[in-house]
Amino acid sequence: MEQYKKEFIEFMVDCNVLKFGEFTLKSGRKSPFFMNAGAYVTGSQLKRLGEYYAKAIYDNYGSDFDVLFGPAYKGIPLSVATSIAFSTLYNKEIRYCSNRKEAKDHGDVGILLGSDLKDGDRVVIIEDVTTSGKSIEETFPILQAQANVDVVGLMVSLNRQERGKTQQNALAEIREIYGIETGAIVTMEEVVEHLYNKPYNGRVLIDDQMKGALDAYYAQYGAK
After folding, report:
1. Integer angstrom CA distances of residue 31 from 3, 34, 60, 206, 216
2. 211 annotated active-site
3. Could you say which residues of the chain have pLDDT below 70?
4. Which among 26, 30, 104, 118 is annotated as catalytic?
5. pTM of the prediction?
6. d(CA 147, CA 172)
7. Going by C-beta distance under 8 Å and a sequence separation of 6 or more, which residues neighbour residue 81?
8. Nearest to 89 by CA among 60, 56, 116
9. pLDDT at 107
């Protein structure tokens, strides 16, 4: 496994973003782990996070795109931090854009925050994690209603490697349904490989009991 992936896994743990236990996901699934990008709260954390995303996006999609779209609410700081990192690392000005949950009818009116979307814009969608593809189902109509844009791809920080509405991996399903590329900084398989029965900061996050819970979860929801 690449060193930067190991560093990113430990970064998620250090920031209390990746946790193990019992959680109910937005999809309704009961999961033994949870990934919450809302726990990145300091300037240094967001700086590093933006750099990880920028590198992953550059490696997967290059720099030939115009807008980073972060769906509300967690996608807002992700799109901002990553657009800053892109400017710093690659000297490329990428506009950031996010949606509001409710359209604003005064001042900066409309449903969008940040940049407007224009016909022909090439867009990369940025999210924390995709479990069932539900969020993309909500995001695509928003983009299509604003302008005739070309969605280059989707980048998430963690590929949970579980099925969406079919037996496919949720990211693979998104590729098939929407015809866009998908990528992740790390996969859950890589997380388990790095943390299983290995002490980190004085504790073992994935011991045999947790590994059993993960195996049971993937027996039910894992992608074939």
Report:
1. 27, 7, 29, 14, 10
2. no
3. 101-110, 131-133, 224
4. 104
5. 0.88
6. 25
7. 46, 47, 49, 50, 53
8. 56
9. 46
